[in-house]
Write a structure and sequence with these properties.
Layout lengths: L1 E6 L10 H10 L4 E6 L8 E3 L2 E5 L8 H20 L3 E4 L4 H10 L5 E6 L6 H6 L1 H14 L4 E4 L2 H11 L5 E3 L15 H6 L5 E6 L8 H11 L4 E6 L5 H11 L5 E5 L4 H6 L2 E4 L8 H8 L4 E3 L5 H4 L2 E2 L5 H11 L14 H17 L1
Parallel strand pairs: 1-2, 1-5, 2-4, 5-6, 6-7, 7-8, 9-10, 9-12, 10-11, 12-13, 13-14
Antiparallel strand pairs: 3-4
Length: 358
C-alpha cells in the first residue's frame, strides 16, 4: 500500500526528532510512505528508506500560510499521479484537508482525515474569524472522508453530534512515552531553582488559546512568595506575558525558558498547570501525570479521564490555593491506551489501511 501523509510538523526534517522516528516507524507498515510537510524545510525532498519527505517552501511572509497550502495542492496531485497513491491522510480537516481534497481530484485515492483539535468547542470559534472559517471548512472536508481518526472521545462525540457522518470514526490518542517517570534529575537544573520551595510548571505554546495569562494571574494571586513559576515554550504571546508578569510584580519569580525539552522540568516540578481554552487531547497532562506529578487543569481534552485536578478559569486561582493547602503532592495517570510505541504504530497504520479495505 502506498500512502501520502500531509503534515504540518516542521521537526520531521530533523534526523533525530521524535517526529522523524514516528514517521519512519509508520513507513515500515507500508510499501511506501510519502509525506508532504506544509512547513518550512529544506529545498529538496529528503529520502529515508521507503519514507520520502517533501517540503513546501513559502513565497513571501504575508501570504506564507496561504501560499504553502496552494503549493501543497500541486505537490499532492503530482505525488498521487507519479506514485499511484492508494490513500491520502491529512493531519487536520482545515486548510490542509481542503488542499488535499483539491489535489486528489480525479484520482481513486481514498481520503483519511485526522482530527487533533477540539474545533467544535465554543472557545475555538470565539478566538478568531480564521477559526470560525476553519469550522466551516471542516464540515466540507469531513463529509468527504473515507475514514476519520480523532484523538479523544470528546472530539468523536462532538463530530458525531454535529455532522452525523456515515463513515467510521476511530479514537486513537496521541502516543505518550510514559517512561518519563524513570528519568533522573538534572542536578544543574535542580540547583538553579533550589532557592524556591515550590516550583510550578507550564509547558505550552505561548499562543492565545493556551491562555498562559491565567497561570500568571493565578500564581500571583495564590502562590506563596517562596514559590516560582517556570514556563517552557515559545510563541507570539511571550512579550505580552513578560509584561503581565512585570505588572503583577512577580517577574523575579517567573522564568521563561523558551522552547526546550520539558523532560527534566517535569522531574523538578511540584505541580503542572494547564490553562488552555480548548485541547484536542492534552499531551502535557498525560506526560506530567506519567511522571508522577499532579496536574491542575481547565476542563479540556483528556484532563478528567487522565486524573488531573479540574477547575474552571474563574475558579483556577482558588483551586491553586487549595492545592497549596492540601495537595495532592503526587499525580497518577489513570488511563494510557498503549502498552508501547509499537502497539500505537500498528493501531495507527491499521486505521489508515482500513480506509482502502472498506
Amino acid at each position: 500500500m502506498r500512502v501520502l501523509l500531509i503534515s504540518t510538523d516542521r521537526t520531521i526534517f530533523e534526523e533525530g526528532s521524535a517526529t522523524r522516528r514516528r514517521h519512519r516507524a509508520y513507513a515500515k507498515c507500508f510499501e511506501e510512505l510519502h509525506v508532504v510537510s506544509v512547513s518550512e524545510g529544506p529545498m529538496s525532498a529528503v529520502r529515508d528508506g521507503n519514507l520520502t519527505i517533501y517540503p513546501v517552501p513559502p513565497y513571501g511572509a504575508f501570504f506564507r500560510s496561504l501560499s504553502r497550502r496552494i503549493q501543497a495542492t500541486f505537490s499532492i496531485a503530482g505525488i498521487i499521479s507519479r506514485y499511484n497513491i492508494d490513500v491520502v491522510t491529512v493531519q487536520d480537516p482545515f486548510e490542509v484537508g481542503l488542499a488535499a481534497l483539491v489535489g486528489m481530484m480525479g484520482t481513486k485515492a481514498k481520503f483519511h482525515v485526522q482530527v487533533h483539535t477540539d474545533f467544535l468547542s465554543p472557545e475555538y470559534a470565539r478566538l478568531s474569524f480564521i477559526n470560525r472559517a476553519r469550522v466551516f471548512i471542516s464540515g466540507f472536508v469531513l463529509r468527504r472522508a473515507s475514514r476519520i481518526r480523532v484523538v479523544s472521545e470528546r472530539i468523536k462525540a462532538s463530530i458525531q453530534d454535529k455532522y452525523r457522518l456515515p463513515v467510521p470514526i476511530t479514537v486513537l490518542p496521541i502516543f505518550t512515552d510514559v517512561e518519563r517517570k524513570n528519568v533522573s534529575s538534572d542536578e544543574g537544573l535542580r540547583r538553579r531553582f533550589e532557592k524556591h520551595k515550590t516550583k510550578l510548571l507550564v509547558v505550552s505554546r505561548l499562543e492565545p488559546e493556551k491562555n498562559v495569562a491565567l497561570a500568571l494571574h493565578s500564581f500571583a494571586e495564590s502562590a506563596p512568595y517562596d514559590s516560582c513559576l517556570i514556563i517552557v515554550g515559545s510563541g507570539r504571546k511571550r512579550k505580552a506575558l513578560e509584561r503581565q508578569a512585570n505588572f503583577l510584580g512577580i517577574r523575579d519569580r517567573v522564568y521563561f525558558e523558551g522552547h526546550v525539552d520539558p523532560t527534566q522540568y517535569y522531574v523538578i516540578a511540584d505541580v503542572i498547570l494547564v490553562t488552555s481554552q480548548y485541547e484536542g487531547y492534552g499531551l502535557v497532562i498525560v506526560e506530567a501525570l506519567a511522571a508522577g506529578k499532579p496536574v491542575l487543569s481547565t476542563d479540556v481534552g483528556i484532563a478528567r479521564e487522565a486524573g488531573a485536578i479540574v477547575a474552571s478559569p474563574e475558579k483556577f486561582s482558588d483551586a491553586l490555593a487549595q492545592w497549596f493547602k492540601s495537595g495532592p503532592r503526587e499525580g497518577h495517570l489513570k488511563i494510557h491506551p498503549y502498552k508501547n510505541f509499537e502497539e500505537y504504530v500498528r493501531a495507527y497504520c491499521d486505521d489508515v489501511a482500513e480506509s482502502v479495505r472498506k
